[in-house]
Design brief:
The two termini are 31 Å apart. A hairpin with a 2-residue loop joins strand 2 and strand 3. The chain has one domain: Spore Coat Polysaccharide Biosynthesis Protein SpsA, Chain A (Alpha-Beta Complex), CATH 3.90.550. It contains 7 helices and 11 strands. The protein has a 7-stranded mixed sheet, sandwiched between helices. Strands 2-3 form a two-stranded antiparallel ribbon. Strands 8-9 form a two-stranded antiparallel ribbon. The mean pLDDT is 94. With 226 residues, the chain is of the alpha/beta class.
């Protein structure tokens, strides 16, 4: 199946203190470099769509020119929300694209093995995402800060990216969402709301998302250990 990789890179990086966290140095390279280079090396990926803020286009184009040697990279402007940004990326995909591989640009430590696993699961099930069991006990609380319940930790997973979908299913789910938009935090929610099953694939705790300054230090340590 022809597969387009869509890298979500249009966030405001507010928890990082402003500016694009994807341009921050990590192991001597910008954070976004690693996802671009991995997708370039993956034979299953046929094109790369980089969805970003207009003001970052020049910097990202230069990084892509260094990281990607064998594939086409399309720069697409993001929208007011993640789901609209990804929608813009999907609309820029080649007409013959059948599979969408949606990746957070802020997850630089994705491995080739995990990428292969989630792509294979999506081809079989129609939708798949990497996930890891939560380590901590999770509490549900009300607005008053008082605990309401404690979910069974064995049933809880922290979902990562890539999240991979048959394009036709994603477009049906997106159309349903646009008719009844609600806040969502990942792309799987679109498929879930439309009634499509999503297969969870074992991820890795090292596939962390760069969100706050301390995440850079952790990622640096993991890179040095690899």
């Amino acid at each position: 199946m022809k597969t387009s990789a869509i890298i979500a890179a249009a966030g405001a990086s507010s928890r990082m203190g402003g500016g694009s966290k994807l341009l921050l140095p990590l192991g001597g390279r910008p954070v976004i470099f690693y996802s671009l280079a991995l997708f370039d090396r993956c034979d299953a990926i046929t094109e790369i769509i980089l969805v970003a803020r207009q003001e970052d286009f020049a910097a990202l184009s230069a990084i892509a020119g260094e990281a990607v040697q064998h594939k086409t990279v399309k720069l697409v402007e993001g929208g007011a929300s993640r789901e609209i940004s990804v929608k813009n990326g999907v609309e820029a995909c080649a007409d013959d694209c059948e599979l969408l591989c949606i990746q957070d640009g802020a997850r630089p430590l994705l491995s080739a093995a995990l990428l292969a696993d989630v792509l294979a699961a999506a081809r079989e099930h129609g939708a798949a995402a990497l996930a890891v069991p939560v380590k901590d006990t999770i509490k549900l609380c009300g607005e008053d800060g008082l605990v309401q319940s404690t979910p069974d930790r064995n049933m809880l997973f922290a979902v990562q990216t890539p999240q991979v979908f048959w394009r036709a299913n994603y477009q049906k789910a997106l159309a349903a969402y646009l008719c009844d938009p609600v806040p969502i935090t990942d792309d799987c929610q679109l498929l879930e709301r439309a009634g499509f099953p999503v297969k969870l694939v074992p991820g890795s705790y090292e596939n962390l998302k760069i969100t706050t300054p301390e995440d850079i230090a952790i990622a640096e340590s993991l890179l040095q250990r690899a």
